[in-house]
Amino acid sequence: MKETDAKVDYNSHQLLLYVEKNNGDYGPFQTGSYLTKNYVDDFWDKQNKFVLDARKKLVDGQISPIRYFMLLIDISEAELATRIGISVKEVRKHQDLAHFDRISVALLRKYAAIFDVPLADFFQIPVVSDNGLLCKHEKTMNPFFTMASIVEEKK
Amino acid sequence: MSSVEFTHKMSAHCESGTLAALLNHKGLPITEQMIFGISGAFFFAYLDTKQFTFPQFVVRSQPGDMRVHIEKRLGMKLVKEKFTDPVNALANTDDLLNRGIPHAVQVDMFYMEYIPKYMKAHFNGHFITVVGKEGNNYLVSDGYYPSIVTLSSEAMEMGRFAKGSLAPKGFTFYPESVKSASDIDWKKQIYAGIKQVVFNMTKIPIPFLGVKGIRKFANEVTKWHLKTRDIDHLSHEITTIHIILEERGTGGAGFRFMYASFLQEASKLINNPALSDMSKKMMENGDNWREISLFVARISKNRELDAGKMNELKNMILARADWEETFFKELGKIVK
Asked: Sorting pLDDT into bands at 50, 70 and 90, what band is B21?
């Protein structure tokens, strides 16, 4: 690939490609991400639809919060089980709403760490009326307790 | 506050970039493409296992392999350590920084706070270099970013002690000593790296590895619609082909451009014009893989994911498999 073909003007996502320079040498060339520049809007469209669909299943009581977050971060049962240190069978059970209330708080904390969410997010979805805002939980010294504030969303 | 004098450079790939940066810091001038080529990291595998939510393909050897082969082939001594206790791991990092030693750590990418939301994914095989500390934050050289980034101690601990596949277990390494460039038998080590790639791409008798893996990928991709929820899901997975080939630390075209750069540099270093010819061919091959990347991005966005387009994609990938089989056999003869 020629250097001129690799050039993408997109500062917020830079990467390094290997290209043919003008003098015929091959080597690294810093440029913008072609995909992010041209396709990130489509990614967010798909993602937003997907999240809304998963959220509907959650609020309709079809899936447990564990399943909901598994879908959101796209993690398999096998990988999640290894990370938590329990069996795949147990992870499967925890995705079922009927078994959700049998999960200990200690285990929920492990799930929360892998999903990178506060414990509170297993029991609520804060909804803000304006687009571009979200409810952010700040950790406290108490591992079971977070402080929630409304902030601008950073993508 | 502690910080080490360290030259941060962007790299195409995290492991080759980290190794190149640390070796340069220690006094061995070497490029990322030479690390990639000499370590024999060029690879292809199509993976459809329970560990993933959807079939994946990888275009390089397993994380950690580059380090192992580079250590052996370039005759350096690395200090390597794993930890069970995060407190000890962070204390070790602080101690190394106080001694002025930049060091690589293996982390789960998911916990790197500087990564944008759309790129967050659990992957335990990411390598970064720790170069300083300011208060509760570490200063980190991550080759995927144009400048030094910061990472909280908490995120560092989460990243280094994530469990799951390829769990880092607090792993850290840095070069204790390196050979001088004149003491390295470059021809022997370049050939060793190439031979390894030739073997991995053409001789492993497993149907999902090497060029066989590329063929399997080509054939399987036409069945992906049977594994997806809807057209948006299929579009997402097809876009992932572009991400793996171009954006996930390959230098473009699934490492083909970087490998062409390696062959060109190797040709000059050991004065072997045949490798230069092969580098030109590999660059052209990379252009054809890049065509695949652009094709999948386009059909994904336009949702042109009918059988006709998927067959077109299959044939484009199969053509690369055939081409690479011939190429690597020819390359094997050159380094015999």
From this structure: very high
Rounded CA-CA distance A86/A80 in Å is 9
Q: What is the mean pLDDT of chain B?
A: 97
Do residues A9 and A77 share a domain? no
What mean pLDDT is predicted for residues B281-296? 98
Same domain, B161 and B12: yes
B59/B43 Cα distance (integer angstroms): 5
Domain limits at B330? 186-334
Are A16 and A28 within 8 A, CB to CB?
yes
On whether residue A90 sits in a domain, the answer given is: yes
Closest Cα in chain A, distance from residue B234 (Å): 11
| Max CA separation in chain B (angstroms) | 61
- pLDDT beyond 90 at B4: no
Query: Measured between alpha carbons, how far is B175 from B320 in angstroms, rounded to an integer?
Result: 38
Decide if pLDDT at A80 tops 80.
yes
ipTM of the modeled complex: 0.95
| A91 and A138, same domain (yes or no) | yes
Taking CB atoms and an 8 Å limit, are A78 and B51 in contact across chains?
yes
Domain identity same for A72 and A134: yes
Chain B residues with CB inside 8 Å of A141's CB?
none
Angstrom distance (rounded) from CA B169 to CA B163 = 8
Contact A96, A102 (CB under 8 A): no
* Domain containing residue A22: 3-36
B297 CB neighbours in chain A (<8 A) are 34-35, 38-39
Same domain, B323 and B266: yes
Residues B112 and B196 occupy one common structural domain: no
Instruction: Judge whether B14 lies within some domain.
Output: yes
Contact A1 B287 (CB under 8 A): yes
Q: What is the pTM of this model?
A: 0.94
pLDDT of residue A153: 75
For residue A145, tell me if it sits in a domain.
Answer: yes
pLDDT digits (tens, 9 = 90+) for B314-335: 999 999 999 999 999 999 999 9
Are residues B127 and B226 located together in one domain of the fold? no
Res B186 pLDDT > 70 = yes
In a domain, A47, yes or no: no
Q: How far apart are CA B174 and CA B189, in angstroms?
A: 21
Q: For residues B262 and B40, what is the distance between their CA atoms, to the nearest angstrom?
A: 11
Domain tally, chain A: 2
Q: Is B240 on the interface with A (CB under 8 A)?
A: no
- Give the number of residues written for chain A: 155
